[in-house]
Amino acid sequence: MTFLIRPLQLEQDLYAIHDLTAQLGYPTTLENIQQRWQNIHQDPNYQTLVVEHEQRVIGYAGLIQEYSWEFDEGYLRIQAFVVDEAYRGQGVGKRLIAAIEDLAKQRGLKLIQVNSGNREERLSAHAFYQSLGFDAYSIGFRKYLN
Question: What class does CATH assign to 4-131?
């Protein structure tokens, strides 16, 4: 199977990104995706890569370069990562992670970080990340403000 990994082009990728985001379980509309893209696209530290097979987007990764008080170097955080359900288990995600690793190295970064929900349906994602050398190391918290 041949894949092309390239930067997101919202005009042509909008519907695919919408459908894939829904597979992640994130509530969304086409208008939400357009608004999020406008916000994300303005930040030079953010990048979205898509995986294309036969001119169809079958996965994407939303990435942001961040800095931390924990260590001197910056790192690349995977904020969104999804492969179309029909293409899982075929090496697509592994190739996308390899492209993310290459991007991090090109930027002189030594760490990639990803959070994954603690719901039971995320256990296969946890196993996927661990199979590629990611370590489970923390618990995340969040608080919505009214």
Answer: alpha beta
